[in-house]
Amino acid sequence: MAEPNQRPQRKMSTAGDGLYKVLGLEKGASQEEIKKAYRKLALRHHPDKNPDNPEAAEKFKEINNANSILNDETKRKVYDEYGSMGLYVAEQFGEESVKYYFLMHKCWFKTLMVVCGIFTCCCCCCFCCFCCGKCKPPGDEEHVYVDPEDLEAQIRAEQDRGEHQPVVVQPHTAAVEKAESDHDQSASNHSDPIFTTTDQ
């Protein structure tokens, strides 16, 4: 629930006349009229002249805000054309982007984009993920069987071609060779029948 001291937040408009109304002017007033109205209202609602009135301080802030926007040529131009919503967009995206923002939010622009997307098949398949299988790029075979003997032959051929080729197979170490020979010995011992002689 809102506190009683807080004022409700104003909705943003595209009319562009609210700041002129704060200063008591019509839209399109000259710089001289804006300065005169600002001085007059600022003196009337200044917090030093109204120390017991918190509404006067809020009104003074509104007057200052209206004056600062209407005295800045670029902000005033944006405000006159697009209203407070235009000022918000200019603050977020930059003053150059305001007209493009409002252009992209017009109904005819959205319709044009949908029609172009339909006629060009999603912009000439730029966003196609090839899920239909019709436009699948060539050579993308997912499961290709390669014989291990062919791979070994290819590795040996690459090794035989030159000494400057990168090493692709690690050399056997003494520990690995010893483990292999121990394994071979134990396998041969288990295959031969064991004869033991006992003393009688």
UniProtKB/TrEMBL annotation:
Q: Which domain of life is it from?
A: Eukaryota
Which residue intervals are annotated with compositional bias (Basic and acidic residues) in the record? 175-185
- Please indicate if the UniProt record lists Transmembrane helix as a keyword: no
**SMART domains named in the record:** DnaJ
Which PROSITE patterns does the UniProt entry name for this protein? DNAJ_1 (PS00636), DNAJ_2 (PS50076)
| Annotated compartments | Membrane
| Kinase in keyword set | no
Enumerate the UniProt keywords alphabetically. Chaperone, Lipoprotein, Membrane, Palmitate
Ranges for domain J? 18-83
Q: Name one GO cellular component term.
A: membrane
Membrane protein topology class: Lipid-anchor
Predominant subcellular localization, coarse grouping? membrane
Known InterPro entries for this protein? Answer: DnaJ_C_subfamily_member5, DnaJ_domain, DnaJ_domain_CS, J_dom_sf
Specify residue ranges for compositional bias: Polar residues. Answer: 186-200
Annotated region (Disordered) at 157-200
PANTHER family registered for this protein in UniProt: DNAJ HOMOLOG SUBFAMILY C MEMBER 5 HOMOLOG, DNAJ HOMOLOG SUBFAMILY C MEMBER 5G
The name of this protein is DnaJ (Hsp40) homolog, subfamily C, member 5 gamma b
Q: Which gene encodes it?
A: dnajc5gb
